[in-house]
Amino acid sequence: MTLWGLLLLGCPAHNGSCDEANVRLGKIACVHRVPDEATWREIAREADPVDQDTITKWARPYGDASPLPETLFLDSNTYPLHWEMLREAFPDRFPGLTLEEYSRMVLDPDRKVLSSGNVALYDGPDGAFYGFTIWDDRTRPELTVTYDEVLASWEDLNDRFELAELVFVPNTSLQAENAATWDAPFQVRGQGVVTYEAYTTGVGYGTIRRLTLSQLAEAEAEGAIGFQDILILDEAPFDLAQPVSGTVTGTRQGDLSHLNVRAAARGTPNCYVPDALRLFELWEGHLARLECGETRFTIEAATLAEAEAFWASIRPDPVVLAPPDLQTDVLVPLLELDTTTAVARRDAVQTYGSKGANLATLYQRIPAEHQLEGFLVPFAPYDRFMATHLWFTAEPSGVRGESYAASIARWHADPAFLGDAGYRRERLAALRTSIDDAIVPQDEVDRIAAQILATFGTLDTTVRFRSSSNAEDALAFSGAGLYDSTSVCAADSYDADDEGPSLCDPDEPKERTIERGLKKVWQSLWSDAAWEERAWYGMDHTQAAMGILVNTRSKDERINAVAFTGHPTLDDPRYLLNAQIG
Question: 395 and 376 share a domain?
Answer without folding.
Answer: no
